[in-house]
Amino acid sequence: MSIDIQDVHKSFGSLEVVKGVTMTVEKGEVVSVIGGSGSGKSTLLMCINGLEPINSGRILVDGTDVHARGTDLNRLRQKIGIVFQQWNAFPHLTVLENVMLAPRKVLGKSKAEAEAIAVEKLSHVGLAEKLKVYPSKLSGGQQQRMAIARALAMSPDYMLFDEVTSALDPQLVGEVLDTMRLLSSEGMTMIVVTHEIAFAREVSNRVAFFHKGRIHEIGPPSQVIGNPQQPETIDFLKSVL
Ligand code: ADP
Ligand code: MG
Predict the structure, then answer these.
(1) What does the alpha-carbon distance between residue 200 and residue 101 come to, in Å, rounded to a whole number?
(2) Based on the structure, what is the number of domains in the chain?
(3) pLDDT tens per residue across span 40-92
(4) Range of 72's domain?
(5) Pocket residues for ligand 1 (CB within 6 Å)?
(6) In terms of Cα–Cα distance, which of 158, 86, 155 is closest to 121?
(7) Which atom of ligand 1 is the closest one to the Cα of 52?
(8) Predicted complex ipTM
(9) Which of 52, 72, 84, 148 has its CA 20 to 30 A from that of 154?
(10) CATH number for the domain harbouring residue 105
């Protein structure tokens, strides 16, 4: 069981933004992806769950070629939860109803089943008290935890996080990182695009440093963050630490 990225190239028109990325994330691993703005981190995540096509290479999720003709992308995406910097919840639905939606519509669960799942996942991210509240009443950190609960409600095997704390006020970052820490301690397989270097260092099995569409360095955090070898990695870490 793994996400296996093999020599992936991806262009938008004539602009190549992912330039031959190879990386395997094994089940149970947490891999953080760090790197400057525009280096192709978000694009790679979109390619992993088939939201963007690729130009060459392959991405296998548990052996299924994401971009092959005939791949059932809806089924594949059920395995892969994704959380973005911001998720616009349905404002006219409560927190509970928002999280029930995908189990109801996509998995075909009964109302009672979907509610049980949503209550469980919202409790897990610390929002048991907010079930009946409307999303606009939540803080930014609570909204991001709701987004995580929503992804978890599909019982994914993998979770992709794309700078989920970047839009938050500094005092709200910790609670979201705590939730991600909890998931990692439970063995969730995660790819975490983040600028939170201390967090990446603490939770990751490996860190990948992206620069201009390529992985310049990948390895344990003690190596890539603690003792970087490439000048680009050293410069980047100086800029964010
Ligand atoms: P990162 O997440 O590392 O900041 P992105 O993957 O978002 O980088 O973007 C990489 C490059 O691809 C940037 O130059 C960005 O402008 C470009 N890009 C991203 N999405 C699109 C798109 N849908 N159409 C055209 N260019 C895009
Ligand atoms: Mg991005």
Answers:
(1) 31
(2) 1
(3) 999 999 999 999 999 999 999 999 999 999 999 999 999 999 999 988 899 99
(4) 2-240
(5) 12, 17, 35, 37-43
(6) 155
(7) 23
(8) 0.98
(9) 52
(10) 3.40.50.300
